[in-house]
Hints:
- By secondary structure, this protein is an alpha+beta fold.
- It contains 16 helices and 51 strands.
- A hairpin with a 2-residue loop joins β12 (about 235-245) and β13.
- The longest helix is centred in the middle third of the chain and has 25 residues, at about 620-645.
- It is elongated and about 105 Å long.
- Residues about 1-25 have low confidence and may be disordered.
Amino acid sequence: MMNKLGLIIVSVILALIQTGCAEQSTWMSLNSSNPRIIWEVKPQADLENITGEQISTPEFKMSDYVKGVVPGTVFTAYVEAGIVPDPNYADNIYKVDETFYNRPFWYRTEFELPSSYSEGKRVWLHFDNTNRFADFYFNGEKISGTKTSTKDVSGHMLRSKFDVTNLIKKSGKNVIAVLITDADQKKTRKAKDPYGVACSPSYLAGAGWDWMPYVPGRLAGITGNAYLVVTGDVVMEDPWVRSELPTLQKAELSVSTDIRNASSSPKEVVVSGVIQPGNISFSKDIRVEGGTTARLSINKDDIAQLVVDHPRLWWPNGYGDPNLYTCKLTCSVDGKVSDVKEMTFGIKKYEYKMVDNVVGYPVLTFFINGQKIYLKGGNWGMSEYLLRCQGKEYETKIRLHKEMNYNMIRLWTGCVTDDEFYDYCDKYGIMVWNDFWLYVAYNDVAQPEAFKANALDKVRRLRNHPSIAIWCGANETHPTTDLDNYLREMIAKEDNNDRMYKSCSNQDGLSGSGWWGNQPPRHHFETSGSNLAFNTPAYPYGIDHGYGMRTEIGTATFPTFESIKEFIPEKDWWPLPTDEQLKNDDDNVWNKHFFGKEASNANPVNYKNSVNTQYGESSGLEEFCEKAQMLNLEVMKGMYEAWNDKMWNDAAGLLIWMSHPAYPSFVWQTYDYYYDPTGAYWGAKKACEPLHIQWNASNNSIKVINTTAKDLKGAIATATIYNLNGKEVPAYGQTKQVDVAASNIAEAFSLNFNPFNLAYGKKAVASSSTGASKSASMVTDGGAGSRWESAYSDPQWIYIDLGKEEKIEKAILKWEAACAKKYELQVSNDAQEWKTVYANKDGRGGTEQIELEPVTARYVKLAGISRVTQFGYSLFEFEIYGEKPKEIEELTPLHFIKLELIDAKGNLISENFYWRNGVNDLDYTLLNTLPEADLSCRLVDKLMSDGKMKIAVKNNSGTVAFANRVRLVNKATQKRILPIIMSDNYVTLMPGEEKVITMEATPELLKGGVSVLVKQYGKAEKNKLDIAD
Length: 1029
């Protein structure tokens, strides 16, 4: 996935990082990005009877080898060598003979010591990650385990470090040989034995999931950085800077590190350090016996400067700046530097509380630095399905999450082993929900002690990262008692309980997992979909409470047409698979990319039909993809906004499944594999903005969301309603001032799309109701999702007080399934004496439109005589009509809602846009009738050397220009410019409206100039602007 330029950048960055960490030491990369290093890869079976001792000598020549990729996997080496056709494309990866890769492989390389090496120094050989088992040989000797042991290093998160001082050749070739052995489970795609937990610790998705294919070799290889470090006899291991925060104005720091004396004689060691910013200096002496390791700790009792006044705190995205500190440690012996380590850390304080929601269910709620944090984010499985994401490429991915206004990523089953992931989460303020390698278990871990060793190394390796917000034992289940107790006790010791350890990812204060199929926004506003009836206390299924803290909810997500062309052969583009094929067909290429049976959780049939019914049937793939982006945008925005709507009343946050793709697919993503943002990306970015105005598709309320640490005061919320032709209809709009406390929500007003309904917003009185959420007032709120529910008995009644006498000509009853069998409509002027004006003895429910003889009354009653079901009477809306006022213009069935939030200084801080059909819900086919608009594009500003520019898109027509997509292509190569950071897309412009869009890309991508292409929904894409470099 990463180009050659990316590999060079990674190499340079790693070299800079490491030389910065070892001022007086020599560091040498053994990665493939080092042009002096060539790794040779070959199956062990092809080197029969040849030992590791022999292979790790200069005299040995490995013929017919494949050039290895480190970090990487065996399979990736064969892909990069061109032996395996592009596994991203079509069904190529499914045609690979997995048995060839599911066996042991040798890695071999040669190197010479750097010229800077000086005699008397100690040489260390490091491998940060190997999967699944590894045995190491160096210069003719076995250096791991014993002479006869095998599978010495077990697990993908265990670091290997070897003292090779006595074996190193000061001049000439040194040779490393590593035997990598694949996991013991699921040796073929169709093997019945579960890969799952038994192979843990490993990359659990390597045997396939509903978002990535089975990978031959199951990601066996040298999967982390390999490097050589030259030091003195004494080295520091796992240094750690902790911060405690008694108050926001004062931090107490402590520093600890293991000191390892690799020599046979005792050493008097001086450890000194400098923390920046602040230039905090400290030092401490320690004696370390030969061949032993001692723990050095320094705190405020040793050094008063470790109490920091007015510290720069690390905050999650949206709540403040993610400030970082560095600590440079130097250990010296006899006045000479022996080792140097530098680490980055943040001053922060995590807290966790179980807060009861309005109906008494406990909800896990996060606090940082004393501030309650509303969580917004997504799940991340693999960074890339063949582990081809490295180094700087992580910045792109994490930056995209930051741009979506996320503040958390959940590492599902801990499938990321690269430190750079955490580095960039630290930088961009993205908290990490960090799983261990367990999920709903069908079998036990085959090697529990290896699991524990890997878990320990993971915590020690990562604990300096302020972004880690929680450690989680298992996905959707609890670890076995032995592992659960070990993880809890180990984290308490090694991380000092600075972060919570939680056994299970979706229980115990969390509200379950799902839905996963496509559902319209209104659905999410009306039901939480909570599915933890087995939890303690139980979350009842599908009620209007139970939003809570949801760690998984997701939908199918079609990529853009330009991306689909990269991996689906043209012959398969159209027509799309039939419903029957989507349900049952194993072999079609769409299913191989998870639009079909393999991703049935995503309900592809429903997704396809939703696009077709809501936006109209398509004549080809490009048209379908464009319409799918509208569905993606609406559904993703609706999920987040439904949770926003319940903030702290019930909801504490939402992590969608998933935000990041590992493989070219049709599920679980915001941007796609090629970094092209789908409609889902823009829906998430909008719904998650720190200051946000939104519409509730169920009850038409307009709310303002504040997910920052500052109060919002004196803001102006405005809703403007437009007809399909782009004409504003003032009678339906509203404006109101609103204040919103920090990390909170406030309702501004409710929209009334039916001003002819005399009952809207009027007082309703009922004989009974089943609770506040089912009270009488629900029938006059104008919402399609809220309802009144009576007691489960007959008779029952509900009446509307119109406030004054009105001429009444019509009533509309919108029933839920529990409707009335027999009922009467009655009127009164005093709510005492009632007159029957209509009777129904055979009620069928649904929407009943009842024409009445004109009558004048103040009160209108529905008198229920008998019910259809055993449940109470259940009524969504009770609408009453008289003569239509001539001064109020009727809306077109399809119309637009534009929301704006202006701060007290007059700055636009949030805007939002929706399309709505008030007659046939979810029917947006009238969008296809919009005429083509006259669009223009102009350059506002550019700084091509930094890859930044601003353009303005304007609608010069008198009609609506709906969902205009802007994209950039390189003029010289005609290739898409991706990745790119944009402020907005799929923008709708009213007549005469202009919108400025900012863009940022790697400068190299812009060389040769760019063309700005604009596509109005349903119209041809056009080149609107050329920009020279």
